[in-house]
Specification:
4 domains, DH_E1, elongated, 2-oxoglutarate dehydrogenase E1 component, nine-stranded mixed β-sheet, THDP-binding, 13% strand, single chain
Length: 937
C-alpha cells in the first residue's frame, strides 16, 4: 500500500487512534487466515489494495508502523464506533502487554531476592478493565489458544500462567513476525508449561540426583579442593541432556560445547561420560605422562558419543583457558569445520552449545563480536544455543549496577534479535521445556537462542572462598534454601509421580556408581569416527620430510588458467592490468611478483585437492591491492573467484572478507583449524599491528594449546609488517611478542622475502605432515618491489629456504663483515651496498626466525670462518623485533672469537615514529651502521 493510500484509508477508517493495537492483532490474524477474523473486520481488510497474487501490497511491518504513528497523534480521537467494543481493544492491549513485559513479573529467582519493577501495563485496571469485566467474553485476537473468545477473568489467569510463571519469555523485540508467531504458538498453547510423563519426570530427577550427588561426593572426598561447583545451578545437567536428546531426534549428529569453570566437572562426568575415577585421580594429583605442561582439570575437554532416539550424537567439550567467554568463537569455528566436512550448509547436522556466566556474558566484548558473526557468510553455524548459568553474582560482585547497565545480563543478545527465555532453576520441568523450545527454535530458524538459567551459587567463587564476606544476606538465604533436587523430589512425591523411597534409591544407586568409578551416564556410547584423522600429524617434528616441487609446466598451466578471465567478466582497469601481467608471468615472459607467487601456492594446493580457507578484513582484494583473489564485475557487481575455476574436481576454496574484529575472528579460525587438518587455513590482519586485539587467542590457544591440551592446529597468520614511515600503528606486528612465546617447537615464525619463498612456505604448511601455527611477518612495500621477484624455475625447483646466503658475486675470502637480517630491510641493505660498491660485507637473510635454523646458518657461514665482525640489522627498535630473542642463537652459530653487534633503531616505547622525515633519517642511519658507512646529513 502506498503511503498516500494508507494515510487516506486511516483518516477515513474507524480503526484509528487507540484502536491501533486491535487492528494490529486482527490484521496479523487476517494475513494468516482471512476467515479467522470477524466478518466486519474482514470486509474492511478486503478493501486494502491487492497485487496480482492476492497478497497485500505492502508488508505488514510497514502497515503496523503506520497504525502506531497515527495512534500517537494527539489530534486523533479514540473511536469505538461501528460495532467495535472499546473494551475489546483494551483486552488486546492487555495481551500485548503480557507478551512484551510479562517476563518482568515472572517468578524467576529461586532465592526471591530480585526486586522486580512493577509493570503497570500488566494490571487490567491500567487498561480500564475491572472486576466487573471478568465474566464478559472477549475475542482473544492472535493468542495461540483453541478458543477465539474467552472470559476476561480466565484470560488474565492464562496470561499470568503463560508469561509470569517459572518462564519469562522475551521475544517481542524480534522483527520477524513468523518467528514471534512460532514462539507464541509454542508457549501460549500450553500456558508456558510442558507436559511430561512419569518416565520423563523420573529421568529429570535422575539427572538432578547425579548433578547434586557428584558435587557432594567430591566435597566429601576432597574437602577444600577447587571444583567450581554447580550446586544451585544443578538444572544445567538435565537441560543439556535434554537438548542433546532433542537435537538427536531431529537429525543432529555432532554437538560442540563450550563452557567456563562453573559446573564443568559435573558436565564432564554426568553428560559426556568421563569416568569418575579418572576425575578422582586428577584431584589426587595423578596424571598421565604427557609431552607438555598439562592443565588444571576444570580447563580440560572431552569427547564421547551420546545415545538419542534419533541415533548417536558425538559430543565434544572444548578445552579452554580461564579467560572469560573466549572459548565461544573457538566453538563456532570447530562447528563450522565439522559442518564443512559433512557438507552441512545450514547447521542441521552440528549443534553448538555455549555456557556463559551472567557477569561474563554482559562484560566481555568478545560476546558482542561473536553475536555479530552469527549470521555472516564466513562464520555462520546455523544458530547457537547459549545458556547463561545466572548465579546472580560475579566473583564477589552482586550489585547489578556494578556488573552491567541493562536490566538483564542477556540483553546483549537483542543485538541479533535472539529470543531470550529466562527460567527459574528450581523448576526443572520448566527448564527442560525451555530446552526443547530452544532446540526447536534453533533448528527451525537457524538463529541464536538464549536461555537465562536463573539460579544461585551455593558456595563461593571456589570452594575455598568465603562468600559471606561480601554477600551476607544472599548466603544466609542460600544456607537455608533446599537444593533443586530436594524441591523437585518433594514435588513429585506430592503429585504421586515418584515417591520418597524411589527418589532415595536413585540417590543410592548413583553413589554406588561413583564408588565403582565407572561411567555414570546411561546414554554414553563408545565413540565412532566423527572427525578428521589427525594420526598422520601426531608426534611429528619440523624436520619431517616433504616434497614441494611443482613442474614449471604445471605452474604455467595453472597460472594461465587463473589469469584468463571469462569474456563476460569486466574488470576494473587496474585489476585488469594485474591479470594481464599475471598472464605474461605464466608464460615466463615476466618475473613473478608477490601476488602471483602467493596465488600460485593456493592454486597448486587446490589442484591437489586440499581445502583453502582465507579470512580477514580485506583478504579478497588484499589490503595493499595485491591479491585480487576475488574480482568484481564492473557491470554487474558480481564476484568472480578465478581460484574456484581451475578444474572440475578441485579442493574447496573459501575466501571471505571478515567482520571488523580480531579477537573473535582469530579465535574462530583457531577453532576451525584445530578441528580440521586437511587444508591451508589463513587469517590475515588488515595491518599486523592490529593483531594485538587478539592477544588472548595467541597467548592462550595458538602458542600453548598443544602443550596444555595436546591440541594440534595448523593455522597460518599473515601479519603485514614493515617500516614504511606510516607511524606507530601501521608498522609493527609485534614480532617480539611471538618470539617470546616460542618454545618446544610450538609454532613457526617466518619472514619471507621473495615470491618463491612465500609460495614454498604456504605449500610447506600443508604438504609437510606437521600441524602447528605459522606466524608470517608479511610485507607491504615488497608486494611491488622491483627486486622482490622470482622465476617459475624458483617455484618449481626450490623448497623453502630457512636461511638465504649472499646472492651477489662476492669473493667470500675478501668478506670482512657479515650482516644478518630478516624482511624488507634486506632490500634497503642490498640497494645501499650496491650503490656504494661495497664488496667486503655479505648479507644473510634469516627467513625462519623460529625454530631457529642453526645448522643451516652454520652451513652458510662456513665460507666466512675467518670473519670476526658480525651484526644483526633490523628496522624495529632495539627492545622490539627479533634482536633480544635471536642474538643468543646467532652467537652459538658464529665462529670462535667472533663478535655480534646490533644495527637498528634505539630502544623505544612506541613501535615507530609518526613523522616521515624522522623515519627516513632513522632508516638511513641503521643501514649505514650495518654497512659501516658514514651517515650523510
Amino acid at each position: 500500500m502506498h503511503e498516500g493510500t494508507m494515510q487516506a484509508w486511516l483518516e477515513s477508517s474507524p480503526f484509528a487512534g487507540g484502536n491501533a493495537s486491535y487492528i494490529e492483532e486482527l490484521y496479523e490474524s487476517y494475513l494468516e487466515d482471512p476467515g479467522s477474523v470477524p466478518a466486519e473486520w474482514k470486509v474492511e481488510f478486503d478493501k486494502l489494495p491487492k497485487v496480482k497474487d492476492g497478497s497485500p501490497e505492502a508488508n505488514f511491518s510497514q502497515i503496523r508502523e503506520q497504525f502506531r504513528v497515527m495512534a500517537s497523534q494527539p489530534r486523533r480521537v479514540t473511536v469505538a464506533g461501528d460495532g467495535v467494543d472499546a473494551k475489546q481493544v483494551k483486552v488486546l492491549q492487555l495481551i500485548n502487554a503480557y507478551r512484551f513485559r510479562g517476563h518482568q513479573h515472572a517468578n524467576l529467582d529461586p532465592l526471591g531476592l530480585w526486586q522486580q519493577e512493577r509493570v503497570a501495563e500488566l494490571d487490567p485496571a491500567f487498561h480500564s478493565l475491572d472486576s466487573s469485566d471478568n465474566d464478559k467474553t472477549f475475542h482473544v485476537g492472535s493468542l495461540a489458544v483453541k478458543d477465539e473468545t474467552m472470559k476476561l477473568g480466565a484470560l488474565a489467569d492464562l496470561l499470568k500462567k503463560t508469561y509470569c510463571g517459572s518462564i519469562g519469555a522475551e521475544y517481542m523485540h524480534i522483527v520477524n513476525t513468523e518467528e514471534k508467531r512460532w514462539i507464541q504458538s509454542r508457549v501460549e498453547a500450553v500456558a508456558g508449561k510442558g507436559s511430561f510423563s512419569t518416565e520423563d519426570k523420573t529421568r529429570i530427577l535422575n539427572s538432578l540426583t547425579a548433578a547434586e550427588g557428584l558435587e557432594k561426593y567430591l566435597g566429601a572426598k576432597f574437602p577444600g579442593a577447587k571444583r567450581f561447583s554447580l550446586e544451585g545451578g544443578d538444572a544445567l545437567i538435565p537441560m543439556v541432556k535434554e537438548m542433546i536428546r532433542r537435537a538427536g531426534e531431529q537429525g543432529v549428529k555432532e554437538s560442540v560445547i563450550g563452557m567456563a569453570h562453573r559446573g564443568r566437572l559435573n558436565m564432564l562426568v554426568n553428560v559426556l561420560g568421563k569416568k569418575p575415577q579418572d576425575l578422582f585421580d586428577e584431584f589426587a594429583g595423578k596424571h598421565k605422562d604427557t609431552l607438555g605442561s598439562g592443565d588444571v582439570k576444570y580447563h580440560m575437554g572431552f569427547s564421547s558419543d551420546f545415545a538419542t532416539p534419533g541415533g548417536n550424537v558425538h559430543l565434544a567439550l572444548a578445552f579452554n583457558p580461564s579467560h572469560l567467554e573466549i572459548v565461544n568463537p573457538v566453538v563456532m569455528g570447530s562447528v563450522r569445520a565439522r559442518m564443512d566436512r559433512r557438507g552441512d550448509q545450514d547447521g542441521s547436522k552440528v549443534l553448538p552449545i555455549t555456557v556463559h556466566g551472567d557477569s561474563a556474558i554482559a562484560g566481555q566484548g568478545v560476546v558482542a563480536e561473536t553475536f555479530n558473526m552469527s549470521q555472516t557468510r564466513a562464520y555462520g553455524v546455523g544458530g547457537t544455543i547459549r545458556i547463561v548459568v545466572n548465579n546472580q553474582v560475579g566473583f564477589t560482585t552482586s550489585k547489578q549496577e556494578d556488573t552491567r547497565s541493562t536490566q538483564y545480563c542477556t540483553d546483549i543478545a537483542k543485538m541479533v534479535q535472539a529470543p531470550i527465555f529466562h527460567v527459574n532453576g528450581d523448576d526443572p520441568e520448566a527448564v527442560v521445556f525451555v530446552s526443547q523450545l530452544a532446540v526447536d527454535y534453533r533448528n527451525t530458524f537457524k538463529r541464536d537462542v538464549v536461555i537465562d538459567l536463573v539460579c544461585y551459587r551455593r558456595h563461593g567463587h571456589n570452594e575455598a572462598d568465603e562468600p559471606n564476606a561480601t554477600q551476607p544476606l544472599m548466603y544466609q538465604k542460600i544456607k537455608s534454601h533446599p537444593t533443586p533436587r530436594a524441591i523437585y523430589a518433594e514435588r513429585l512425591a506430592a503429585e504421586g509421580s515418584v515417591n520418597a523411597e524411589q527418589a532415595k534409591a536413585l540417590s543410592d544407586n548413583y553413589r554406588d556408581q561413583l564408588d565403582k568409578g565407572e561411567c555414570v551416564v546411561e546414554e554414553w556410547r563408545p565413540m565412532s569416527e566423527h572427525s578428521s584423522d589427525w594420526t598422520p600429524y601426531l608426534n611429528k617434528q619440523f624436520d619431517a620430510q616433504y616434497k614441494s616441487g611443482i613442474s614449471t609446466d604445471k605452474l604455467a598451466q595453472l597460472g594461465t588458467t587463473l589469469a584468463t578471465m571469462p569474456a563476460e567478466v569486466k574488470l576494473q582497469r587496474q585489476v585488469g592490468k594485474i591479470y594481464e601481467d599475471r598472464l605474461t608471468m605464466s608464460k615466463g615472459e615476466k618475473a613473478l611478483d608477490w601476488g602471483m607467487g602467493e596465488t600460485l601456492a593456493y592454486a597448486t594446493l587446490l589442484d591437489e585437492g586440499y581445502h583453502v580457507r582465507i579470512t580477514g578484513q580485506d583478504v579478497g582484494r588484499g589490503t595493499f591491492f595485491h591479491r585480487h583473489a576475488v574480482v568484481h564485475d564492473q557491470t554487474t557487481g558480481n564476484e568472480y573467484l578465478p581460484l574456484k575455476h581451475l578444474k572440475e574436481e578441485q579442493g574447496t576454496l573459501d575466501i571471505y572478507d571478515s567482520v571488523l574484529s580480531e579477537e573473535a575472528v582469530l579465535a574462530f579460525e583457531y577453532g576451525y583449524s584445530s578441528a580440521e587438518p586437511n587444508g591451508l587455513f589463513i587469517w590475515e590482519a588488515q595491518f599486523g599491528d592490529f593483531v594485538n586485539g587478539a592477544q588472548v587467542v595467541i597467548d592462550q590457544f595458538l602458542s600453548s594449546g598443544e602443550q596444555k591440551w595436546g591440541r594440534l592446529c595448523g593455522l597460518t597468520m599473515l601479519l603485514p609488517h614493515g617500516y614504511e614511515g606510516q607511524g606507530p600503528e601501521h608498522s609493527s606486528a609485534r614480532l617480539e611478542r611471538f618470539l617470546q612465546l616460542c618454545a618446544d617447537d610450538n609454532m613457526q615464525v617466518c619472514v619471507p622475502s621473495t615470491p618463491a619463498q612465500v609460495f614454498h612456505m604456504l605449500r610447506r604448511q600443508v604438504v609437510r605432515p606437521v600441524r602447528r601455527p605459522l606466524i608470517v611477518m608479511s610485507p607491504k612495500s615488497l608486494l611491488r618491489h622491483p627486486l622482490a621477484v622470482s622465476s617459475l624455475d624458483e617455484l618449481a625447483a626450490e623448497s623453502f629456504q630457512n636461511v638465504i646466503g649472499e646472492v651477489d658475486s662476492l669473493d667470500p675470502k675478501k668478506v670482512k663483515k657479515v650482516v644478518f637480517c630478516a624482511g624488507k630491510v634486506y632490500y634497503d641493505l642490498l640497494d645501499a651496498r650496491r650503490k656504494n660498491e661495497i664488496s667486503d660485507i655479505a648479507i644473510v637473510r634469516v627467513e625462519q626466525l623460529y625454530p631457529f635454523p642453526a645448522d643451516e646458518v652454520q652451513k652458510v657461514l662456513a665460507q666466512y670462518s675467518h670473519v670476526t665482525e658480525f651484526a644483526w640489522c633490523q628496522e624495529e627498535p632495539k627492545n622490539q623485533g627479533a634482536w633480544y630473542f635471536i642474538q643468543h642463537d646467532i652467537r652459538e652459530a658464529l665462529p670462535a672469537a667472533a663478535k655480534l653487534g646490533y644495527a637498528g633503531r634505539k630502544a623505544s616505547a612506541a613501535p615507530a615514529v609518526g613523522y616521515a622525515s624522522v623515519h627516513a633519517q632513522q632508516q638511513q642511519a641503521l643501514v649505514a651502521d650495518a654497512l659501516n658507512l658514514e651517515v650523510k646529513d
